[in-house]
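User: You have something folded?
Assistant:
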Amino acid sequence: MREHTRGSQREWRRRTLMALSCAVVAVLGAACGSGSGGSSGGGQDAGKGGKDAAKVTFVLPTPDINMSLLDVVLPQALGIYAKNGINVEFRNVLGAAGLQTLVAGKADMTWVSVPGLFPLFADNAPVKSVYETFTKRWMQLQVPDGSGVKSLTDLKGKTIGMSSRRGGQTQIIGYMAEHGLISGRDYKWVTLPSMAPQAIATAFEKGDIDAISLTLTDLAIQNGLDPATKYRDVMPAESASEPDPNVVIVATDDMIEKRPEVVAGMLRSVTEAIIDAQCDPEAALEAMRKYAPAVFANEAVAKAQFKAIIDYSRAPSGDATGYQYGTQSLTAWKKMLSRSLLDPAGSGISKDVDVSKFVANKFVSDANAFDKAQYQGGKCHG
């Protein structure tokens, strides 16, 4: 494990914790507040896994359970963590306090958006990315179907709407820079007061924006609640064929070194749950409804988000049995970093780093070490 002096840890926290807190909240479409952080009370559990179960404290970077967290929450709702001998305690911790709990040894794992990890890696944070949750590009850059914007270069001199300055937008900023467009110089971002479909449509109608940066769940809500309004993506084709890393599961170095079998069990549970949901989405949706009923306050939105996440966690070939879920492409990580460095002021990433030291695929085999055929064959809950 890397050693830090107390002084260097304080400096590392001061310079990097807020970068991560903004990024992880931004990818969810929420605002990044000043916040002092602190637990919001979370801690829901759907099965303790027995008295001998391994205990894992998992930080969720949101004020409460929501559908964006499906990949890591669904195994709890379905009882899969417990089945695999793990007692997971979720803690909803906002802002810098969330990462502080990991660094201080008071939590074991978390779920974060990738852009905020680069500055942490540059400062030798004692954490590693261990599992990629999505198999397709998470961030979308959309324009109205009738727009004259056909590619990124057509956005020179234009305005892009967003929900938050940092987070998933970093992917778009990197691709824009690769095409010769620097944020603030060649185009600008504006924050919309709401990402509701009508608010987005109004912003386009008034000419306030020429394009909109959306997550896949944002887009699912848009298409579900306002199907008459058509948008199209203008990101380059290569961003789909080899997507940037999106949202990952992170574990502390301490947990990886001292309890690798528990890390493996956690990630296997995530893989099992997502394949289970792809096999029997109605049962998985009902399990989520029982586990977190507040998520379904707006039924249409919840179902649209659920479908988007399930669809964008599928094996690219459609064959779950032959796919290694959780695999992280080091090439994609490196390309994303190099693109981000082309526009450091825009991306918030200014320091190169050897990501191979912080991106661990060592648990991928274990994460897929179960009989996937039972799901493919229709025995979804056997």
About this structure: The chain has 17 helices and eleven strands.
